[in-house]
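Minutes, methods subgroup
Present: GH (chair), OT, SY

1. OT presented the first of two proteins processed in the latest run. Sequence and structure tokens recorded below as shown on screen.
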Amino acid sequence: MFRAVICPAAIQVLALLAALGAAAAWAGNCPDLDVPVGSPLHRDPRPAELVAGLEVGPLRERLEACLAADPMPATRTIGHRGAPLYYPEHTRESYLAAARLGASTLECDVTFTAEGDLVCRHDACDLHRTTNILETPLASTCAEPFRPALLEEGVVIRPASARCCAAQLTTSEFLSLEGRHDRVNPAAENVAQYLSTDPSLPSCLDRGKLLTHRDSIALFKDLGMAMAPELKGPGVSMPFRGKSEADFADQLVQDYREAGVAPERVWLQSFDPNIIQHWLATGAEFGGRVVWLDGRYALDDFDHRDEEALGAGFRSMKQQGLQFVAPPLWMLVEAGVDGIVTSRYAVLAQEAGLSLLSWTLERSGPLETGGGWYYQTLNGANPLPASRSGFRIRRDADQLMLAQVLFEEIGVHAVFSDWPSTTALTDTCLAAPLAGTQADTKP
């Protein structure tokens, strides 16, 4: 019972705007990316600031004790596109930063060039936003050239736009571009305005080096990282130059085989159920680590609280060989009377024998206003039916409470994070035995 869903553009825009707010909230120290592999992890101020925002109690005390120790790599923390809160996503520098901040797994979203080479980009056609292509002669290759905003008395009637796809570039042309923060001005009247960035938004780096998929594998191996590639929608008509989406899925897996990466070091991800089923059937040694990114929230008839439908769907997925499901954060939790509690979605998935991953912490900006889409079951936007009161997200530190539920109560396999040090602290700290347990008293 898989159904294909593409993440809505509106959701991505909201997430972006929220991320900008997060950047404005903290201009913390940037890690040194030139240190040798195996050096002590970078200690940035963000985790300590969040812990200080918690109410005095057991969780704060445990995390404060962990802050006193050296930061450690976190086995359940995935660098989502690297560390894009302060680095251009899917760049070499963003990945290096994520490794320095405690991630143990790094994500390369995968699309392809005109030559069919796989490259790291979140979207097949986002180059106008996430690279400098509009400032280069390669702007002539864009499927839709830059179009200025239409303004009436200072009000944006039609936002500025463009559409530039990796599949329209050779691999060398793609690699000649520079990665940039996914920040554009919808009211722009020219390219310079469109790509201008707000100087009040702190950044550890304005431009970064783009990578092919094979480049990312080599880098991640050197860093000792596990790998979480996500095959993205093609963005162009298929088949593309004789290759189907399944062919690109096979090519992705083959890249890991040729690089000698152990299957247990790779998570194969996709929103597309057809790709998931293809990998389960053909991925052989990699098939046991296939992750279906559950995007059914975009379907009009989907209810993530419908227990009968959920249970039947999860059992069907398990019967087809799926082991891992990754919904957004809000589908795994509910607002209880006194705090965050596990959702029926999480319970039913695990009862069916499925393991869970989730996305994405540190992507919603300051949480004083509720955190937006990623926190909708905790901020009143999507409450339990008939629920009139309960927990509400109200501060950045509350994501540590969410992480505690994810790691300790639900027992997720991994959580994606835009700034891995935050997640890594909770991950490593809460993986330790609780004081007073039998494990804690062993000699």
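2. SY then presented the second protein from the same run.
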Amino acid sequence: LLINGSAGTLRVPIFYEGFAWNRDDFDRLLVFKPPTDAPGNVCGRGVPLVVVTPPARCGSQQQSTQDCVSSTDGNQCAIESFVKTETPFAAPALFEIPVSIFDGSDEIGNTATASLTFVNPLAFAPVSGCQGIAQSPAMPLAFARQNSEYKPIEAFVNGDNGVDQAQLRFLEPYQPDKIPLILVHGLISDPATFLEMADVVRADPVLRTRYQIWVFRYPTGNEFLESAAILRQQLGRAFACRNTSANPIEMAEGQVPTQRAVIVGHSLGGLVSKLQVTDSGNELWRSIARLPLEQLRGPPDDIAEFRDSFYFRANPNISRIIYIATPHLGSPWASRGIGRFASRLAGKRSTEENDFETIAADNPGVFTGQFADSLPSSVDLLRPDSQLLQAIASLEPSPGVAVHSIIGESCRLPRAGPSDVVVPVDSAFRAEAESTAIIDATHTSILRSSDAEQEFVRLLRLHLEMPDTVRLQ
């Protein structure tokens, strides 16, 4: 930083405190006013800023060294990173500029008298009032929502069009000493639906230093088993980052580190999340087909996709799941006129439809239920009479996975009883849950409910009581 003082130009050193980001990640500095009701505090020392990381530069070394990346063909252009380019993050700027620079009493070159320091607000506990550092963890998330190119409705109607492809993203570089908090959105939605809850986590003096937020975005019109399979694959690669990072945990002999991640799913996202913590067995495949998968005729690649979607094991790195307004037993709206209309709108990629039709033609009479005539949409699979949905509901979570439910109740639905307008309480209830919180909220407002946020914080604090290591059997 160069400052013109009374005696000439002064070079001011720049410092960075508490960041997982590299210096090269500081590309654009923006003054961004957060929503007035967002948690956090912009009063205090310094200037709260949003920093945006650099855009992709093909062929350069622009990728952060802390990103976990993989290359499919050795070409720098093909690198996939879980930390998206042009990611915003908060960085209050603290200026130390003595008046002596401008009144002539300071000599040029005395850099000790002036400095600019960027501070990571997530690395320091907030201070009430205006005594601490000015900070607002909500700023980068609000900025990302305002500038997002993702359009949930178009993704629902058109499916994966490139911009709207299923992707797991980190909101900051991977940190092996922080617990992954994986957020999975619901139908016709996107990760921005968790904005308020993410803000609550980042505003909490304890949770902000113990959790790192990962979000999964996916086109919600497609049948959701495929999206669950993509998330399973990407989580596998993401958790592998720990194997290439220095492990800060000191372990006793015979112990191994555990990721003990928390996954949170709202609505349809709860079903996608459940398929990360359960073993499929044969139940899911049997609910849609009369023949074993091994006897299916067709292109090997298409059969392999079926195998990825219908046969899987629970991810051992996830040890807690939080369902929010999840339709485990479906929603009556999916069977009514509005549900049938939404199903017709739901986009399916033409290649997927063609692949399924090819398999169905090669195996006449094999597929049953909603798969008998065509590839169903996600809305079709949310009908209470869906055999596949009933099979998913019967799956038990992997041993060692703690289950919790946050359920909305705001009205009664005809023939369905108490509900959040969309999902009946009976459908959202899980007998295996260690705790169930009934919140006075609708299906969408529950993510902005203060009662739900308090329960969410309670569960995340409860999770911190788990050990960082597990003993080998």
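Chair's summary of item 2: The longest strand covers residues 211-217.
Next meeting: continue with the remaining queue.
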